[in-house]
Structures are given as structure tokens and as C-alpha cells.
Design brief:
heterodimer; A: alpha+beta; Uridine Diphospho-n-acetylenolpyruvylglucosamine Reductase, domain 2; Uridine Diphospho-n-acetylenolpyruvylglucosamine Reductase, domain 3; Enolase-like, domain 1; 3 domains; B: seven-stranded mixed sheet
């Protein structure tokens, strides 16, 4: 299909972009990579009156690191972050490798995937796993929204209609931390039926900190905080990890669609959590 | 005739333009003053149109016209149907067949989501879509019938009330005495197998461009179709014009697979609009339309009973078959009877009975898609045989060794007709040899030895077998027109349509050998009704045999004319003249060679004298193909299953096949690979899903999952060659075969991988959810 008629504007500065969003509110949609928006326009599922193309806005395409914190500008393409992450953040590199296919990642932006908030996508789960944040600007000012507060439902976030994401902030796992990433998709590059991202730090033979983020299973990505708390101080044995996987997924409100019923997602979430925890435990270097 | 090119792995001549992006597909056709069509399609599975108000739409900028059934009533004729019962078949089988008129524009009731209600023509596609949205339709929803078995039950909503039933095609048939045989069996296994609704999904969707010429009252239409002559015949009826005033051109096609070999409303509507407006009109189907409007396929349920002796000898077979045909019975007996004719396959079974119901439901109508009933029937049969083997404690390879018809038992007469009405008799082939070659290429014995060892280490691998015998190259004919230019270059036109099979190369190979000219002297075009007056088209793995033989016949006839003319030029007897590499010479005297161009020029009259021979170096040929010839194959699939997620990974895939004499081995391999890829899609990924109200849930390629290159393993092909005695070139058809056995082979492999768990997968696609559910059911 062809998109329904819309007005197209391409601001050159963040101020201009933000002014446009202030004027048009929820009649406007921001276009960056277009990998989610353009198909929706073409199918007439999205019918904004105004498309605000931010690809020419300056200053939003940098990746800068201060200590363990990484600031990723809103126009940084997924492929650019994947390359940057390389060896220094293998969890990110691996997860990004599952986002669509390479050609998609050369256009799609990190911020766009997070703002789109498809519950089956990898980047929102990664941001949640690592307790990252989204920086959003409007005419009313700038605010930083923690990942834990950002994802509110399928394709629904805490962003107001007049807010533009300018960067996402990430805290990289410590070098000695173990990581695991497991995803079940029908085909490589598809949205996940279920996926799990895990970070485990180990000290003196016991789990110091565990992070477990599950995506594709429920209406938003989910941190399995109860299981994380239960793991702290325990030895990372098969039995302990298997039990953590059970606890992590016991109360998941899994969704159903044409690709898998709810029980499938619940069952596989548990299986993949156990596997990702085992991977992370194997990779973790004892900090003691 | 030489055999320099026939059998050679020549690189395809059509490929360079496709690789450079210089193909000319229907969307590349542009004409001055072109308008664009869009269609308003029913959002309901079953609903009455109470009223349509197009006033607002007609007033929108750029809109040239809006047409409903009432606006074009004068020209509305029922769309063509296919699959009439041939006399030979009607004499043997009593068919209950019902048709109902399908109108290009919905007259009063829409019977599936996607059925056309109105056509908008505007100066751009975007504006045509805007106008379609502005058409106000008042709908009265009606109860929809969606499930194929429910459709056959009393009290189900009727798709065509005048039938008093939803059964569009019903029949029973039997050979031997199946009930007696099953009664005497040591073991009878009964199971129900379900094959999902899946489709051809060509990369290029459909499209039609039409141009009316008021000067001579003629229509030219470019149509991404596999069947130009069928489309032409439909337009003769619809436009009330003689055939020579309707030119249908199939341009480059990005795939067909049968989806483009059916009759469609748009074929007629776009030309009607072009004539009414006296402006050329273009319609290019988008993917979303394609999902709901282009023909669907497959979708069968088989409740099969198979009986055997304890030693594994199969003694009898009974199958109750349901087919979900969608809202209209477009293809008559074709799919139901194809299913029955291919059920037994390579097995030695003389006692069989079938009870078949093809029902209509409120879904997109079905048409034959690569395999056309064979993948479904082979799935039921080969799955049943594997389940039987498991019950008897026999290896699936051994039960097939015991029951496959041997080469020395051919020709094998089934005692029933093929769907063309002629006797179903396997002509040539060696099914046990195909089985052994496939097993050997797949490393079957080594796989079995390692399987238990791997399973003990948590690696669940399985191997599965499936074989088929396929009636190919249905007739009754195809045509070829062949002519030479002044230099002896050859132009061939055929009614066959190239949608990726390499016709421009393979048919040139045939002609070059027969004529004795270099390959690059021969060019082949297809699918233009102006170039060949009578034709059928490309589907049913038929063009190699039908068009290939016609081209050979035509080339033989023109070669004879060249020989006669060359004999005059060389002052020799025609029997002593040879033609090779574009020159004519006296046998044994190579120095006598003269270029064919000179022979042709010498035949043209000058002021001084008449030509040495009539300068008529062209002819048409229509090779008669009364019945099919039988290709066959055995497929072996190796899989690894993750019992924690139900994910199936394909490790290796082997095809050992016979398609008779091969023109171009590279093209043959490509066909096999493509067919296997589509079979893998059906086995593991693809499904058109409707909800209980008949709403199509799979609306985009995000929902309908096509296998990509990374989802396919290496496909190893073993070529066997058992020439057909039924045509001079010894060929059999090959286009569909690859798609027939993968669902059976792959699901057999999955059951095999999970053998110790007692899993039995009875339907496709074998999605991770379905596999995991089967594992959990077997454990619980």
C-alpha cells in the first residue's frame, strides 16, 4: 500500500525538531532509521499528519564513553554500536547480531528500537538488563528516564508526544562479569519468541550480582528481580541456576500469538534462562 | 541431430539482465498517460453489500473513475473455471462437482476477506488508495464457515446457498478391495494428518497493464501470468472481442509457482477500465493484497488407515480426504483427483479406497501450487508408513525396501485413470535404486550408528525418508513458432512462459542441436499470444516436455528446408548434406562448407532469377501430449531437534531423482533446490492463518514466514536417468518434484530424532511450538 497523505519536514537542529513536536504533538511521528515506521506508514497502520525526519539533525550520532557509562546519540545506527561494542561489550555485540539483518542495522537506530519498544526486540531488554536510561528533550526541558520506568506496554513508553529521544545511556558490565544471551526465534533475524540476557558477577565462589532480563515473553521486557535476589550469595551450581530459572519465569504473564501459545513462551523462557545463566557462570571470572 | 548442447551445463542466458537489474517485469512497463488502479476489498469473510456510495471517492483529486459491479454490469461475466472432468476420467469416477459464478467485482455478497468490491482508477496509486478509503460501503455481515470439516457438516453456514451443501467436489474411488485387505491385515494403523494452508508466494507479486487502441479496436495487456493464452481466452469472453484483437504478453516474471497460473478478476478489470477510459491502466499488486487475493493452496486433512502383515508388507490403504478450496471452486477436480492419483506413490499396493470431499469455506480460493496435491498426499502416506514401521519395530528404510515397486515390475498399471482420463501406468523409473542412492548419499547407515551415541550426550538427531512418483508434463499440447533471419539466426516463440525455469537457455539448447547452429544464434521468447496463436502455458512441470518437443519438431522441419536449399547451393543430394555450427556442407567434404546465411540469401528471388528454394524458413509445431510421464524421487532429511525449545535445524538434505533425459543439469539442480526450499517452508515455517471469523491473521511477510538462505542446508542431488518412452526427447517433467517430499521427510526425521520419547507429529508446519507441545504431550 501507499502511505496516507502526510506533511514532511526535516529539521537541522534538535531545537527545531523539538519545536515541531511541541506544535504537532501526537499528530507527528519521528523518522530516524525508518525500519519500524516506514512499513507502518506503508500499511497505513500509522497515519501521522506530520513526519519529522531527524536524520539531518546535527550532534546526535556520537558514541562517547566516560568510565563505565556509554552515551549513545539518538542517530547512532545499530550497526555502528555493534562495531563499537566489538570485544569491549560482547553481550551487546551478540544481542545486536540478532537484531534483524546487517542491512537493517545499517539504517535502524539504537534509540529508535528502544523508543519503538516492541516487547520482542533485543535492545529494550538490554537497556533494562544493564539499568540504562533514555534522555528525552522537549520544549519543557530535558529529562533522564530510567529503563525500569521506560517500558510501559507493547509499543508504549514513558515518552510524551512532544519528547525527542536525544541519547540512550548504558552502563557496561564489569570486565570480570560473565554474560549470557539466548534467543529463540523462528528464523535468524526475526523478532524473538523468547529471549534472555544475563549478567553474573561472581566473587569468592558465590554470585555477587545477577541480572536477568527476559524479552518476547510478556507485554514488556521483564527483569526477574526475585530470582536475582535469590541468587545473591549462592554458589553458581547447576541446581542453583536451574532453580533461579524456575523462579525467574514462574510468574511471567506470557503472551500468545500466531507463532506460539502462551505456554510455549513460559516453558522456553525457563529453558533459555537456565541456559543463559549457565553461559554467564561459565564466563564469569571470580572477582576475589 | 547432434547432441552438443542437450545435456550440457550451459550458463543461463537470461541471468545477466536479471543480475544487472535490467529485467523487464510488468511494473517496468510504462506508457504515456498511464493511470493507476487500486481495489477496495472486502474486510469481511462473508457479508452482503447493502449499498455502495462512491460519490465522495469520485470527487477526490486525480480520480478518473470508480467502478462497482453495477457500473460495469453490461460487461460482467462469471470468471473462468478450470479442471473440467475429462471423458476418460468421468467414465471411471462419479464426481459430484459444483460451481458458482465468481464475479470480478462482487455483485452482492463477498465470500472471503480480500474479494474485490470496487475498482478505483486515478493518476497515482497513492491517490487511488485514498479514494478507495473514501468509498462508503454498508455491509451486512453473514456467518462465516472457516473450518474445513465443520464446512462439511449439516447446519454449517453455506458459502453458496443454492448448492444446499459446502461440498464443491465429492467422490469415492477404489481399486481392489481395501476393506477385505485391511480386515485380513495383522496390524492396521489409523492416524489423521493435517497439512496447513500455504502458498506459492512468488517474489514478484501479480500485475496487469492494459492499453486499448481505439484505432483498430484492439487490446494489449501485459500480465505477470504463467498462462497468457488462458488469460486471452478469458478476455475474449469478457470483452467480446475476437482473439486476434487481444494480445496478452507475459513479460519477465519473478516467480509463478502456480499462483500465477490461475484466472483472476484483475486480469479482466484492468482491461475493462483501459477500454472504458481510453487510457492505459496499470495495477501492481502489493504484498498485503497478495496475501489475501492471490490463490492459496494446500490445506488438506487425511484420515488414513494402512494395513500390513507383521513382516512389514503393506496390504491395503483407505484414506478419507478433506480439501479446503476457499470460497470458489475454481479448479474443479484437479486438486482432489491429483491428491488421489498420487497417494500410493512408489508403494506396491493394489487395494485402496478413498473418500474425498473438497469443500468451500469463506477464505481465499485455492489454485494448484507447485506439487498441487502431491505434497499433501505424500505427507499422509509417508508419515503413515513411518508410524507403521515404528509400531512393527522396523527401520523406515527397510519397510520401504520391502514395499517399493521394483523396476522389473514396470510398467505398473494401477487400474485407475490419471486426471487426464488416460490410464495411470508408471512407464519408467527405478524406485528402489532411488531409495538406495538417496540413503547412500545421506550416509544413512553411519547416521544410525552414531545416533544413539549422540542422543546419550543430549544431541537429538534424526533422519527421515520420503519418496514420490509424479505424473508430469500434462498435455494436451504446447506450441512453438520458429523462424530464421537473413543470417540464419533463429527466433523461437512458444506459448510456454518463463518464470525462472531458464526457458531461454534450455529451449535454445534443444533447437541449436536439432538445427546444427551455435547456441548463441538462437533466441527464445514466450508467453506472447501474438507470436503463437494457440497455447496452454507453464505449470504442472510441463514445458520441457510439451514446449521442448514442439521446438524440436519445428527445428526438425526447418532443418529439412535448410537441407533442401543447401543441397541446391552445394549441388549435392539432400541426403549428403550436413549442417553443423551454422554451416552446411557435403558429408566428407568439409571444404564445401557454406554459411547458412548464404543458403538463405540464395533462396531469395532477385531480378535475375528465382531463389534456389522457397525462402520459407519458418514453421509452427504443436506436439501432442495425450498423457503424462512419470518422474520420481526419494528425499532424505537429517535434522537436529532441541527438545528444550522445539527448534528444528536442518543438517543435510539429499534428493535422488529421475526426470528422464536432462537438457541442462545446472537448471535441473536449480529447480530441485528451489522446490526443496519451498518444501522446507511448508514443513517448518509457512502458514496462512485465519481466525474463527475468517479474518486473515497473516497479513505480511512478518507473519507468513518464508525460509531464507540461512534456514536451508546444503542440498545434495543425485541424478538418475530413466528416459520416458512417451516423447521423442525422452524427457519427464521436473519443476515441482523438489517441493513434494520435504514435509514428509523432515517430519519423519523429527519423529525419528525424538523416537525414544514416543513423539508423533501429525501436522505441518512443525513449528517449535508444535514440536515442544508434542514432546510435552508424550512425556505427560
Amino acid at each position: 500500500m501507499k502511505p496516507a497523505p502526510f506533511e514532511y519536514v526535516d529539521p537541522r537542529t534538535t531545537d527545531e525538531a523539538v519545536a515541531l513536536l511541541a506544535t504537532h504533538g501526537d499528530e507527528a511521528k519521528v523518522l530516524a532509521g525508518g525500519q519500524s515506521l516506514v512499513p507502518m506508514l506503508a500499511l497505513r497502520l500509522a497515519r501521522p499528519s506530520v513526519v519529522v525526519d531527524v536524520n539531518r539533525v546535527g550532534g546526535l550520532d556520537q558514541i562517547t564513553q566516560h568510565g563505565a557509562t556509554v552515551s549513545v546519540g539518538a542517530l547512532v545506527r545499530q550497526r555502528a554500536l555493534e562495531r563499537w561494542a566489538g570485544e569491549r561489550a560482547p553481550l551487546l555485540t551478540t544481542a545486536l547480531g540478532h537484531v534483524g539483518h546487517a542491512p537493517i542495522r545499517t539504517r535502524g537506530t539504537v534509540a529508535g528500537s528502544i523508543a519503538h519498544a516492541d516487547p520482542a526486540s533485543e535492545l529494550p531488554a538490554l537497556l533494562l538488563c544493564l539499568d540504562g536510561a533514555v534522555v528525552a528533550r522537549s520544549r519543557r526541558g530535558t529529562r533522564t528516564i530510567a529503563a525500569a520506568d521506560f517500558f510501559q506496554g507493547p509499543l508504549m513508553t514513558a515518552l510524551a508526544a512532544d519528547e525527542l529521544v536525544t541519547e540512550t545511556r548504558w552502563t557496561l558490565p564489569a570486565p570480570h562479569a560473565g554474560w549470557g544471551f539466548r534467543e529463540m526465534a523462528r528464523r535468524h533475524g526475526d523478532f524473538a519468541l523468547v529471549g534472555v540476557a544475563v549478567v553474573l558477577t561472581v566473587a569468592r565462589g558465590a554470585v555477587a550480582e545477577a541480572r536477568i532480563a527476559i524479552f518476547g515473553a510478556a507485554a514488556t521486557p521483564v527483569r526477574a528481580r526475585e530470582a536475582e535476589r535469590a541468587l545473591a550469595g549462592q554458589p553458581a551450581t547447576d541446581g542453583v541456576l536451574a532453580e533461579a530459572a524456575r523462579v525467574a519465569t514462574a510468574d511471567l504473564e506470557t503472551v500468545a500469538d500466531i507463532h506460539a501459545p502462551a505456554v510455549y513462551r513460559a516453558s522456553v523462557a525457563r529453558t533459555l534462562t537456565a541456559r543463559a545463566l549457565a553461559d554467564a557462570a561459565a564466563r564469569a571470572k571470580d572477582a576475589a | 541431430m547432434g547432441a552438443k548442447y542437450f545435456g550440457a551445463a550451459v550458463r543461463r542466458r537470461e541471468d545477466p539482465r536479471f543480475l544487472r537489474g535490467e529485467g523487464r517485469f510488468v511494473d517496468d512497463v510504462t506508457l504515456p498517460g498511464l493511470l493507476h488502479a487500486a481495489f477496495l476489498r472486502s474486510p469481511h469473510a462473508h457479508a452482503r453489500v447493502r449499498s455502495i456510495d462512491a460519490a465522495r471517492a469520485r470527487g477526490l483529486p486525480g480520480v478518473a473513475a470508480v467502478y462497482t459491479h453495477a457500473d460495469l454490469a453490461r460487461w460482467m461475466k462469471p470468471l473462468p473455471v478450470f479442471g473440467a472432468t475429462p471423458p476418460g476420467l468421468a467414465a471411471a469416477v462419479r464426481f459430484d462437482v459444483r460451481h458458482a459464478p465468481q464475479w470480478a467485482l462482487c455483485k452482492d455478497i463477498a465470500r472471503h476477506v480480500g474479494e474485490i468490491v470496487a475498482m478505483v482508477v486515478a493518476d497515482s496509486r497513492a491517490r487511488a488508495e485514498d479514494a478507495a478509503e473514501a468509498i462508503d460501503v454498508v455491509w451486512e455481515p453473514l456467518p462465516a464457515v472457516v473450518d474445513m470439516r465443520a464446512a462439511g457438516e449439516a447446519g454449517a453456514p453455506l458459502v453458496h446457498p443454492e448448492w444446499s451443501t459446502n461440498v464443491a467436489v465429492g467422490f469415492t474411488h477404489a481399486i481392489g478391495d481395501a476393506e477385505r485387505a485391511l480386515g485380513a491385515a495383522d496390524l492396521v494403523l489409523e492416524e489423521t494428518f493435517q497439512i496447513q494452508r500455504y502458498v506459492g508466494m512468488p517474489l514478484e507479486t501479480r500485475g496487469v497493464v492494459a492499453q486499448w487502441d481505439r484505432r483498430d479496436g484492439s487490446l494489449t495487456t501485459w500480465n505477470s501470468t504463467q498462462v497468457s493464452h488462458f488469460v486471452q481466452q478469458g478476455l475474449v469472453t469478457a470483452l467480446e472481442l475476437p482473439p486476434h484483437r487481444i494480445r496478452v504478453i507475459a513479460p519477465d516474471l519473478g516467480g509463478g509457482f502456480g499462483t500465477k497460473a490461475s484466472g483472476y478478476p484483475e486480469d479482466v478489470l484492468v482491461p475493462l477500465a483501459a477500454r472504458a477510459l481510453n487510457r492505459p491502466v496499470k495495477w501492481i499488486e502489493d504484498r498485503r493484497e497478495h496475501m489475501m487475493a492471490a490463490a492459496h493452496a494446500r490445506h488438506q486433512t487425511h484420515t488414513i488407515r494402512i494395513g500390513a502383515r507383521r513382516d512389514g508388507t503393506i496390504v491395503g490403504l483407505a484414506d478419507r480426504i478433506w480439501l479446503d478450496l476457499g470460497a470458489y471452486n475454481v479448479w474443479g477436480i484437479v486438486l482432489p483427483y491429483n491428491t488421489v492419483a498420487h497417494l500410493i506413490g512408489p508403494y506396491r499396493i493394489r487395494d485402496m479406497k478413498v473418500d474425498v470431499k473438497g469443500v468451500v469455506t469463506n477464505k481465499t480460493p485455492n489454485a494448484p501450487y507447485r506439487g498441487a496435491g502431491r505434497p499433501e498426499t505424500v505427507f499422509a502416506m509417508d508419515r503413515a508408513v513411518d508410524c507403521l514401521a515404528r509400531r512393527l519395530g522396523l527401520d523406515p528404510a527397510d519397510i520401504r525396501r520391502k514395499n517399493y515397486i521394483r523396476a522389473d515390475e514396470l510398467p505398473w498399471d494401477f487400474g485407475m485413470p490419471y486426471r487426464d482420463g488416460n490410464p495411470l501406468v508408471y512407464d519408467t523409473g527405478d524406485f528402489p535404486a532411488a531409495l538406495e542412492s538417496a540413503l547412500q548419499a545421506a550416509g544413512y547407515d553411519a547416521f544410525r550408528r552414531e545416533q544413539a551415541f549422540l542422543r546419550a550426550r543430549g544431541v537429538w538427531r534424526g533422519i527421515g525418508i520420503s519418496g514420490y512418483v509424479e505424473g508430469t508434463a500434462i498435455g494436451p499440447f504446447e506450441g512453438a513458432h520458429l523462424k530464421l533471419d537473413l543470417t540464419g539466426r533463429v527466433q523461437i516463440a512458444t506459448g510456454a512462459v518463463n518464470s525462472g525455469q531458464g526457458h531461454e537457455t534450455a529451449f535454445a539448447q534443444v533447437a541449436a542441436d536439432v538445427l546444427g547452429v551455435p547456441l548463441d544464434w538462437v533466441s527464445v521468447t514466450g508467453g506472447d499470444t501474438a507470436a503463437v496463436p494457440f497455447g496452454v502455458g507453464t505449470f504442472a512441470s510441463r514445458s520441457g516436455v510439451t514446449a521442448g518437443n514442439s521446438i524440436a519438431d519445428a527445428a526438425r522441419a526447418v532443418r529439412a528446408k535448410l537441407v533442401d536449399a543447401a543441397a541446391k547451393v552445394l549441388e549435392a543430394a539432400p541426403d549428403d548434406v550436413e549442417i553443423e555450427d551454422g554451416t552446411a556442407f557435403v558429408r566428407g567434404a568439409p571444404a564445401s562448407a557454406v554459411a547458412l546465411g548464404k543458403v538463405i540469401q540464395a533462396s531469395i528471388p532477385t531480378f535475375a532469377k528465382a531463389g534456389v528454394a522457397p525462402p520459407d524458413f519458418e514453421t509452427s509445431a504443436y506436439h501432442h501430449v495425450p498423457t503424462v510421464t512419470y518422474a520420481s524421487a526419494v528425499h532424505v532429511a537429517q535434522v537436529e531437534v532441541d527438545p528444550g525449545t522445539g527448534h528444528v535445524r536442518l543438517l543435510k538434505y539429499v534428493v535422488a531423482h529421475d526426470c528422464g533425459k536432462v537438457i541442462n543439469p545446472t537448471i535441473v539442480e536449480g529447480q530441485v533446490h528451489g522446490g526443496v526450499a519451498q518444501g522446507v517452508g511448508g514443513a517448518l515455517f509457512e502458514e496462512m492463518v485465519y481466525d474463527d471469523e475468517g479474518q486473515l491473521l497473516t497479513g505480511t511477510l512478518m507473519d507468513y514466514l518464508m525460509p531464507s538462505a540461512t534456514d536451508l542446508p546444503r542440498i545434495d542431488t543425485v541424478h538418475l536417468e530413466y528416459p520416458s518412452p512417451r516423447n521423442p526427447l525422452g524427457m519427464k517433467g521436473l519443476g515441482e518434484g523438489g517441493a513434494i517430499s520435504p514435509p514428509a521427510a523432515i517430519v519423519n526425521a523429527i519423529d525419528d530424532a525424538l523416537g525414544p520419547l514416543g513423539v508423533r507429529i501429525t501436522g505441518t508446519p512443525a513449528s517449535p511450538a508444535r514440536v515442544l507441545q508434542a514432546i510435552e504431550a508424550a512425556r505427560g
